[in-house]
Amino acid sequence: MTQRRPDRVLGLGHDEFWRWCNLGELRLQRCANCAKISWPVVKACEHCGDARLVWERLSGRGKVVSWCTFERDYYSGVLPIPWETILVELEEGVLFISNPTDFTWKDISLNMAVNLAFVDCEDSAGPFKLPAFGRA
Predict the structure, then answer these.
(1) Which of 36, 51, 66, 111 could form a disulfide with 47 if both were Cys (CB 3.0 to 4.6 A apart)?
(2) Whole-angstrom Cα distance, residue 56 to residue 121?
(3) What's the confidence (pLDDT) of residue 117?
(4) What φ, ψ does residue 47 adopt, rounded to 5°?
(5) Are 57 and 131 in contact (CB under 8 A)?
(6) Are 84 and 100 within 8 A, CB to CB?
(7) What is the pLDDT of residue 123?
(8) Is the CB of residue 8 less than 8 Å from the CB of residue 126?
């Protein structure tokens, strides 16, 4: 079942991120100069300033390093309350804010292993695949 979500950020760079997600791949920008990953989307490397960025496919494996449950309706009824959010440290070292797919805050432990799973979603721009994480 497709989930309704708040509008995503679209535009330069962001469209490329969502295109890869819709193909079932989590890709982030890696700098061709210093080899570091920048996230969220940037026009130039946040580490060295070089504009030569390539979209690299990531493993989709990580661990939960923090979590939060929202109990207020910040999106005017678009999301169910309470709303679970997790901070995942990807195997490649990048921190990625996401949602759990098959667990709640009651099940989380620090450094819990998780794997990428795409969730079918829709916003005012149309359908898309959202990167989320389930138990490894």
Answers:
(1) 36
(2) 23
(3) 98
(4) -95, -45
(5) no
(6) yes
(7) 98
(8) no
